[in-house]
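Progress note, sequence design subtask.
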């Protein structure tokens, strides 16, 4: 009977050891996820398509999806008006791909995070957005 008791306690110890190792591995996996919090906030720069200025209010949700809105300042003949358009996208390393859903369709931008700016091109022209908050 002693052998079976040792066999059971050894098996129990083995299972607990493996469970502990799995927990440590999961914790290390969670810690290795990149921190994209630098992207959260408001970014100001030129408005693709309309000209003038725009502000992107971005937030990284979960691992790397990005959501937010564009606050576009437009001159409609009766003075300036701010219009909001939804933004979706992803961030991977220093590259941010966003899609802005506007009244007349979607505007896609690929921006690169460099020197506290988001830089990209829209229809061949460089666009630079600086963090404003």
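Output:
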């Amino acid at each position: 009977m002693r052998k079976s008791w040792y066999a059971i306690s050894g098996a129990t110890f083995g299972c607990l050891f493996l469970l502990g190792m799995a927990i440590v591995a999961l914790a290390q996996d969670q810690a290795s996820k990149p921190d994209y919090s630098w992207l959260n906030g408001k970014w100001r720069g030129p408005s693709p398509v309309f000209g003038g200025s725009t502000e992107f209010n971005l937030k990284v949700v979960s691992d790397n999806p990005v959501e937010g809105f564009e606050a576009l300042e437009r001159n409609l003949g009766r003075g300036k008006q701010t219009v909001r358009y939804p933004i979706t996208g992803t961030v991977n390393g220093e590259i941010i791909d966003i899609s802005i859903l506007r009244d007349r369709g979607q505007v896609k931008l690929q921006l690169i995070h460099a020197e506290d700016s988001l830089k990209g091109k829209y229809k061949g022209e460089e666009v630079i957005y600086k963090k404003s908050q």
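The helical segments are 2-31. Work on this subtask will continue into the next period as scheduled.
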